[in-house]
Amino acid sequence: MLSNSVLVAEIDTCLRTFFEENDSPDLPNPTIWEAHKAVVRGALISRATALKRTRSSLIQNLINDIRSLELLHHTSALDSDYEQLTSKRKELNDLLNSDIRFAAQKAKCHFALLENKPGRLLARILRKRQNASYIARIKLPDGTFSSRPDHILNAFPHFYQNLYDMDQMPSSGPSTTTIAAYLSNTVTRTLSPAMIDLLDAPVTSDELLSVLRNLKRGKCPGPDGLPAEYYRTFSSTLTPKLLSLFSTIRDGVKFHTHTLSATIAVICKPGKEGTDVRSYRPISLLNTDLKILAKVLAVRLAPLLPSLIHPDQVGFVPGREARDATTRVLGAIGLARRLRKGLLLLSTDAEKAFDRVRWSFMFAVLQRIGSGDCFLSWIRALYDNPTARVRANGALSATFDIHNGTRQGCPLSPLLFSLTLEPLLTTIRNNIDIKGLDGQHSCHKISAYADDLLFLITDPSTSLPAITAVLETYGEVSGYRINRDKSEFLNITLDQTAIRRIRHAYPFRYCAHQMKYLGVWLAPSTKHILESNFFAILKTFRSDLSEWNGRMISWLGRIAALKMNLLPRLLYLFGALPIMVPLTFFTALRTALLKFIWPTGRPRVSFATLCKPKHRGGLALPDSRRYYLSSHLTRLIDWSAEHSNKRWLDLESALAGYPLWTLPWLPPGSFQVARADPDPVSATLRLWHKYKLTYGLSTAISPLLPLVHNPSLPGGIRPSLRTRLTEGSRLRAIDLPSDGNLEVLPTTSPRGPLSPLDSFNFLQIKSYLRSLHSGYSLGRQLLPFELLCQAGTSLTHGISALYSLLQAADATIPTFFSRWDRELAIVIPEEKWTQTFVLIHKGSCAARIQETSYKIAAFWYRSPSFLHQVYPSTASECWRCELESGTYLHIWWSCPNLGSYWTHIRDIILQVTDVNLPLTPECFLLLHIPLSLKVLKRSVLLLMLFASRALIPTLWKSTRSPSMDDWIRRVEEYRSVDLLDAEHRGKSADSARKWYHWERFTASNRASHAVTHTG
Fold first, then answer.
1. pLDDT 10s digits, 262-317
2. DSSP for 752-816?
């Protein structure tokens, strides 16, 4: 309904009228706001009912008229009465079928827009069929089973009411004094005055509009039934009212009770028993206005978390990732094995961690970190007596209150949880009885991703009792509870006697060979890690690809499926486990991908070409080998950071025995890194030295060559000399005087001339650099990757940026470029090819149009002359004219039977767009059009060309040539798709202007004339 501009205008007027009439200081803002929802729902229902009533009345009138005419014709038998009867029947039939036709047309356009492209539609096609969501039978609290709908419905609120009301008696929870005493020693980081002011500031219109723009479409609304689309459509009217509402809440006024209500939808977890309420995952649907305020607060709070939360916690903190935790554990395993130091990994399972957070504890933490009154007012308003109802089998349960837990579906929820967990992590770090693994500069006891905790224990006899006590104490004040039966431990280097004692004393599950943590399998050796993760996922990929082969996916859709589904899983593994992966893995993966892309024959485009960027003639097929290298290159940038707080860097520095920032730039033979298993440091260095010259990332000797911590300069650099050469603690070759021959000593300084010792030290440096025979390389400018390392700043999309850098080093061109040169007897410059592929991939949003255009450019289609070379028994003549050799250019362009086809299309394009295209294959087949993409996107010219080319493959190996009738119908299909896309993007007016002249053409005699004379 919100796509109807007339209806939107009516509702907007209704909203403005309502707010004007109810603008009274006597009415609380939250009440006015909640009342407006009832008004707008009523208005929408009223309009929908009126439309339905009008349509029903029209149908009934037609039925009455038809009945009267039937009786009249039965009596009179006049032709005029029969014609009227036929006309009325047709009118009724059209009216009844209009909705069906519109839905079919919309579905067709929807598929044309979204099929075979990364997105929800392709994800649904690839997804395994899910079990029916209907709950047929449930286990009741007394242990019996029931299939009665009321028993099933009531079982869920009974379970969630107990979960969300842990302290059912007022005296059962911890006292305020107890919580304050616990937090007095465990909250050590607080907000600065500037941070407090930022959190307390009134919500601005810019903040609100930014959140509204980023609201996801198509999401289920909360109990009020108003989705994100409603707030986006009426943002100009609603924004001032929302700002006023949030300002009122900031001053301490509460939300209306209905605003805080939620609907809980339940979905059975994969592989779980469907009769147990605990097997269902609750999905909380909050009202959109509540989520808008929470998102504004989350956007403010998120950048402050790194200063409030220790780097041990990597979950939901900006700048930290899951790979930071897994890489850290990998380094710990390698270091413990190399030092032969006992190490045990303990992974704890928290029972409903987010749902069990006590609000009294959460607010005490927020106050302890120094949150301002206004920020606390907003948070308190979000948690002021919320309610929920469970939806199961299409029915809603009775309403129940929520008294604990961070709210599901709320953007603030993970941030608040991380803050409430930080006191526990601080306690663990400060507890001297918990023994962790020593790195280069600090001790490592625990790694956390939200509620997923992994303990690094070197002395279990003292550490495990201390950990148990710490968790129990924290649980008493916060509600946190560990499920001991589901918690696991993995032995890395402890003796078996110690393991037997632990298994006897604790109920934790013992993992004999491997343990899963954050989606990857941890094991004591590289061999086991490879088998459990990389080669295991290879088997999973093969299974998935085999299953997808039976799905209705086009050639381009198969490549999109690999990008959307397989690539993220692969990238996560590369980042989480930076170890040496053998070439056999990549070879096997490439073979599996090729079989999926080309399921029925030999590849028609090489794998290397498909992996190229789209603007360079490829289809951006993921090159797993380069992505693997890119993930290791991001580590080199992390190594180079001067003030990074990533905890894994400390362990890897201990593994290497050298400062990490020096390792990539030291000559390979000048130092020796002690080997470990697993050994992420050596893996990254091996890949770096193997490929740095191949991809032009650096030279054999780089200007970033370190002079401090350099094994070839055992005497080091005197501090007095270093401070003359650089202001920082690091001294590199690039910091020396700009004279490449190092003939000029740094004597010009306010401190006066160099001392004899400093002069001698400088001569040592000079002698060392000359011995490297590096020549020009030390005085040159830094290469792009070297600049990234010198900056030492983590990239926002690091792997993608470095992958693009590696691809740019590949200067080869697709083989079909030269083939077109031979076909056309010209040399096509590179900028023309770039234009071709930009228009192919950006000229239309429909994947099938892009696919056909790319296939034409890449010689995907097999011409008669080509088939004759492969199969000599087949004819080489054109199947259309049977006169000349069927070369690629002949089939597509120069066949006599196509001459009038291309000529008429050129003429109609001129009539519709006033653009006189040259009648050449370069223009019509390779899209060498003398207009910019911006101009072409506003014109129908490009879609008219796409339609003309798309018809030829539909008649492949046919004697018939495409007709103007075929072409006009195809353009009309493209028009429908384009109009739907414009409607989705809110550009309907622009699309109407774009197609205006085409519609006039199709409605005029010129269209019928063209069809008649060229069909």
1. 999 988 887 788 888 888 888 889 999 999 999 999 999 999 999 999 999 999 99
2. -SPPHHHHHHHHHHHHHHHHTT-GGGGTSPPPHHHHHHHHT---TTHHHHHHHHHHHT-----HH
Phi and psi (nearest 5°) for 284? Answer: -90, 125
The single-letter DSSP state of residue 605 is S
3-class DSSP state of 138: strand
Q: Which amino acid is at 917?
A: L
Same domain, 436 and 290: yes
pLDDT per position as a tens digit, 635-677 = 999 999 988 999 999 999 999 999 999 999 999 888 888 888 9
Q: Are residues 215 and 83 in the same domain?
A: no
DSSP state of 313: B
Label the pairing between strands 400-401 and 443-444. Answer: unpaired
Residue 544 lies in a domain: no
Query: Distance between CA atoms of 711 and 657, rounded to whole angstroms?
Result: 12
Tokens of 38: 């009832």
The answer to whether residue 968 sits within a structural domain is yes
CA-based nearest residue to 589, from 619, 569, 614: 569
Q: Which 3 state secondary structure label does DSSP give 566?
A: helix
Same domain flag for 86 and 172: no
Q: Do 90 and 168 fall within a single domain? A: no
State the residue range of the domain holding 39: 5-114
Q: Do 84 and 206 fall within a single domain? A: no
Angle at 85 between CA 82 and CA 88, to 5 degrees: 150
Residue 327 · residue 648 · CB < 8 Å: yes
Would you give the end-to-end CA distance of the chain in angstroms?
41
Is 405 part of any domain?
yes
Count structural domains, the chain: 3
Both tokens assigned to 792: 């030492």
Residue position matching structure tokens 């896309």: 981
Do 280 and 355 belong together in one domain? yes
Burial class (CB in 10 A: 0-12, 13-18, 19+), 47: middle
The Cα 735–Cα 314 span in angstroms is 35
Pull the structure tokens for residue 786: 């070297």
Residue 127 identity (one-letter amino acid): R
